[in-house]
Amino acid sequence: MNPALLVLEDGRVFHGAAYGAEGETFGEMVFNTGMTGYQETLTDPSYARQIVAMTSPHIGNTGVNDEDPESGRIQVAGYVVREPARVASNWRATGSLGSALRDQGVVGIAIPGTRALTRHLRDRGAMRAGIFSGAAAAAGADALLERVRRSPSMEGADLARDVSTAEPYVVPAIGERRFTVAAVDLGIKSMTPHRMAERGCEVHVLPATATAADVLALNPDGVFFSNGPGDPSAAGYAVDALRGVLDAGKPFFGICFGNQIFGRALGLGTYKLRFGHRGINQPVQDRTTGKVDVSAHNHGFAVDAPVDGPFDTPYGRAEVTHVNLNDGCVEGLRLLDRPAFSVQYHPEAAAGPHDASGLFDRFCEMMEGSA
Ligand SMILES: NC(=O)CC[C@H](N)C(=O)O
What we know:
Elements: E1 3-8, E2 13-20, E3 24-32, H1 38-43, E4 50-54, E5 58-59, E6 78-81, E7 83-84, H2 97-103, E8 107-110, H3 114-124, E9 127-133, H4 141-150, H5 160-163, E10 169-171, E11 179-184, H6 191-197, E12 201-206, H7 212-216, E13 222-225, H8 236-247, E14 252-255, H9 257-265, E15 269-286, E16 292-304, E17 311-313, E18 316-324, E19 330-335, E20 340-343, H10 358-368
Parallel strand pairs: 3-4, 4-6, 5-7, 6-8, 11-12, 11-13, 13-14, 14-20
Antiparallel strand pairs: 1-2, 1-9, 2-8, 3-9, 10-12, 15-16, 15-18, 17-18, 18-19, 19-20
Helix pairs in contact: 8-9
Bound molecules: glutamine.
Glutamine binds at residues 46, 227-230, 256-257, 298-301.
């Protein structure tokens, strides 16, 4: 294996071996603690412009298959693992992860110290980084550090429109069609419309820059805003569209970036977490029932909202419905006088536990007018 370097913005350097494509890449350095689901993680568009390190020590064991991708390609800017599998073995596998990364030009690195890297990010926070291998590594760490420090930051980055669909498309209902949903694709994972389709929703997926008029022209029973990459404070176009949807009184459900856009539409702020939540075992408590779900997460930003009780918004009273039991951050919001709610985590799972899948049923009940 050829040598490679991982250079962090604060000057920390990890030496390792090239994995996947050789060359150079830049992004925000984050870690994911999922023990399974690397293919879903790699293809989640919310990871655009992020270099993802897996804390699970052995990655690639089951290779890649045609069923698990959450989008049409690998979306991460770079990939860091401890030890890549030498042999991929699974009845569904169509190839190895190393060759999939190589074929799609995704630069990765295998380093012995993914634990040291994770502890560093937990202490210092997510930061910019670069991976360099082949001819790109020849410049030496000091010159590479300068280039990392010149690369763009995640704060203020508007990335949703880069990963969104260019054209609208429809995911048909599975079985009898019960509802029409307009889903704004801010970086949508394919499992999300699928979870709705399973419940009888015909899902009209629209580009990130869809306006309220575009959404309402479909005369949907409900409106959905998806997960997605980047800083929600840079996606004012989505906030404007959602305000128009809320003004029209349509039932609304948002996931992750969609939760952040909902928060901003209600007049709340969003802020960057120190190192974020990325994994599949995060405990989230539903404050309305007391129930705790173990849930899938991928977020680096969060909504700043009062957690101690209802607060006023331009759309009437709202409340924080869910909090993370690890760090207390806001994981869900709802309006109290209108049918609109959102969560910061991933009820569609993919990868992860299915504890929260009932939220899709709640959205359907809202569209039925029974919730
Ligand atoms: N998965 C997502 O939708 C992520 C939302 C946002 N980009 C964040 O990092 O918080």
